[in-house]
């Protein structure tokens, strides 16, 4: 069974090459891309020197991909916060062990139940 591969985006030079096959001059390619970008048919960032080398021909795919990336980033922030809290808890446990509070059950002469810790 043969599967068809769909390209969601093209490089600038690929777009120029495809445009030539439709008799569109290279000088008109950027204008064409800006036109279709304004109408929501593709994503093209003409003003960015790096991003302008990429043309996304499936805006829905682009938005969904960005959404997944942002969701993943937000989850990593939560995981990082949990990790930092866990490390802080371990550091507190270490400090308590060093000060012998946990092993003796005493805090400045006051008996501390381990269930309170």
Describe what this molecule looks like in 3D.
- The termini are far apart.
- This protein folds into two domains: 9-57; 59-100.
- The strands form two sheets. The chain has a two-stranded antiparallel sheet with strand order 1-2. It has a two-stranded antiparallel sheet with strand order 3-4.
- It contains four helices and four strands; from the N terminus they run E-H-H-E-H-H-E-E.
- A hairpin with a 2-residue loop joins strand 3 (106-107) and strand 4.
- With 117 residues, it is mainly alpha-helical.
Brief description of this entry?
56% of the residues lie in helices and 9% in strands. The chain is mainly alpha-helical and 117 residues long.
Radius of gyration: 29 Å
Total domain count: 2
Q: Could you tell me the mean pLDDT?
A: 78
- Per the principal axes of the C-alpha atoms, what is the gross shape? rod-shaped
Report on the biggest sheet.
2 strands, antiparallel
Report the β-strand fraction as a percent range: 5-15%
In whole angstroms, the N-to-C terminal distance is 63 Å
SSE string, helices as H and strands as E: EHHEHHEE
Coarse structural class: mainly alpha
Low-confidence stretches: none
Number of strands: 4
Sequence of strands across the biggest β-sheet: 1-2
Number of helices: 4
Helical coverage, percent range: 55-70%
Q: Which SSEs are present, and which pair or pack?
A:
Elements: E1 9-11, H1 12-20, H2 26-38, E2 54-56, H3 59-98, H4 101-104, E3 106-107, E4 110-111
Antiparallel strand pairs: 1-2, 3-4
How would you describe this structure in keywords?
mainly alpha; two-stranded antiparallel ribbon; 4 helices; 4 strands; 9% strand
């Amino acid at each position: 069974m043969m599967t068809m591969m769909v390209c969601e985006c093209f490089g600038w030079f690929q777009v120029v090459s495809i445009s030539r096959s439709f008799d569109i001059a290279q000088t008109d390619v950027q204008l064409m891309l800006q036109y279709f970008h304004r109408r929501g048919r593709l994503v093209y960032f003409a003003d960015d020197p790096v991003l302008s080398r990429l043309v996304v021909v499936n805006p829905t795919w682009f938005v969904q991909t960005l959404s997944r990336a942002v969701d993943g980033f937000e989850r990593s922030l939560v995981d990082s916060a949990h990790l930092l809290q866990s490390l802080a808890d371990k550091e507190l446990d270490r400090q308590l062990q060093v000060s012998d509070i946990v092993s003796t059950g005493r805090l400045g002469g006051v008996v501390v139940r381990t269930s309170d810790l």
